[in-house]
Write a structure and sequence with these properties.
The protein has 422 residues and is an alpha+beta fold. Helices cover 35% and strands 24% of the residues. It contains 14 helices and 13 strands.
Length: 422
């Protein structure tokens, strides 16, 4: 049933799984709106939902900054009549751990990187030897009493122990689709920001799968199956369902979560009827979870949370009335009434939404049930209406028709011929 929280369950799953587990959300109608084949769109969605954790060892220097000394000197040259000169920066960085202390000479790039990170004495930093990237871990506990006032973002850490230079394991989280795009486009990873990935050849994917499997055996990579959530799945056709059937049998298939609000319906593109508009062979592979409509207290609690998010003050009796409206109509309609009722209260110079605001908005904006009732009541007033048996102009002429015996013809202004059989 609509409004029972199917999409909300999927969003809750995504947050519970955490950032390291891939979670891809798509609507079934997106498959038909993209400039690529349906199977390619589904393949990309499936590979977005499969994560790869690539393990890499790198050499870093980690320690507490004892002193940063930067000197600026003027350097000049004379070439003919033209003089060339500039400001040259040199520097020294002193790092220490609990066991040792070392002084390093700094070049221009490292000086700029230190200035950019605003590194000062007392900071604990790491320097990647391969890339030269500087990361500030926080302030040392030994400097915690240097200042009377500090920002809320100041983080204190212990001074590192052991050697200054150490090997550290770094984990990179990427999806199979990102690896596909990087290896199939000339722009490399910049193609990810362009968005127009296009169709990717099967040969590229086979090579990537083989390489990832090789890394997995060597212990350099780890496969993280994620979740693919397809909303309004009844919009897919038989070709898409057949493709999903095969894809779910793969070793690296993600967990598939689908949502639909259809009962016994036709499978798109066929004349066959099936539960939820999904083929029976795919339904047989799924665990079906039914969702129930929200109770009155649950709707009230959801509306109170929504009021806090929208920064709307609402009286208790108005909240009770809105919860009752949500029970009788739908939760979405009640949520839409919150902001409109607050505007009505603001117009009458009130800081709190009261019952009269809810009633005013309820009269101005109708819900689906009242709209349907209005159409049923005034269907003859509309230009086109298909509720009853009508002619091409939408006007019901049943009342004007006269009963005619078998084989007779009746028309206004013409004679009637009657034939009867014994």
């Amino acid at each position: 049933k609509p409004g029972t929280g199917k999409t909300a369950i999927a969003m809750g799953l995504a947050q519970q799984l955490g950032e390291d587990t891939p979670f891809t959300t798509m609507s079934a109608s997106e498959v038909f709106s993209l400039e690529m084949s349906k199977t390619e769109a589904l393949t990309q969605a499936l590979r977005k939902s499969i994560g790869v954790q690539i393990l890499e060892e790198t050499e870093v220097m980690e320690g507490e900054v004892v002193e940063v000394q930067i000197d600026t000197a003027f350097s000049g040259e004379k070439a003919g009549s033209k003089a060339k000169g500039g400001m040259e920066k040199t520097g020294r960085l002193t790092l220490c751990t609990t066991d040792m202390e070392t002084v390093y000479d700094l070049g221009t790039k490292m000086i700029d990187a230190l200035s950019k990170e605003k590194v000062t004495a007392g900071d604990v930093i790491t320097i990647d030897k391969a890339s030269g990237k500087i990361t500030k871990l926080g302030r040392s506990f030994s400097r915690s009493r240097d200042y009377d006032a500090m920002g809320s973002s100041t983080r204190f850490v212990q001074c590192p122990e052991g050697e200054l230079q150490k090997r550290k394991e770094v984990v990179h989280n990427v999806s199979l689709h990102e690896i596909d795009v990087i290896n199939s486009r000339q722009q490399g990873f910049l193609a990810l920001f362009a968005g127009d990935t296009g169709e990717i050849k099967g040969e590229v994917r086979e090579q990537i799968d083989g390489k990832v499997a090789e890394w997995k055996e060597e212990g350099r990579a780890k496969i993280v199956p994620g979740v693919l959530f397809i909303d309004e799945v009844h919009m897919l056709d038989m070709e898409c369902f057949s493709f999903l059937n095969r894809a779910l049998e793969s070793d690296m298939a993600p967990v598939l979560v689908i949502a639909t609000n259809r009962g016994i319906a036709k499978i798109r593109g066929t004349e066959y009827k099936s539960p939820h508009g999904i083929p029976l062979d795919l339904l047989d592979r799924l665990l079906i979870v039914s969702t129930d409509p929200y109770a009155h207290d649950e709707i009230k609690q959801i509306l109170m949370v929504r009021c806090e998010e929208e920064d709307v003050e609402m009286a208790e009796d108005a909240m009770e009335l809105l919860a009752r409206i949500g029970t009788e109509t739908s939760l979405r309609y009640a949520i839409h009434m919150i902001i409109t009722a607050s505007l009505a209260a603001e117009k009458r110079k009130s800081a709190e939404v009261e019952i009269e605001d809810i009633k005013r908005v309820y009269k101005l904006f109708v819900d689906v049930k009242r709209s349907t009732q209005y159409l049923m009541e005034y269907n003859k007033e509309f230009m086109f209406n298909e509720l009853n048996d009508t002619d091409e102009y939408g006007v019901d002429n049943n009342e004007d028709k006269k009963p005619v015996a078998e084989g007779g013809v009746s028309s206004e202004g013409k004679e009637e011929s009657m034939e009867t059989s014994p």
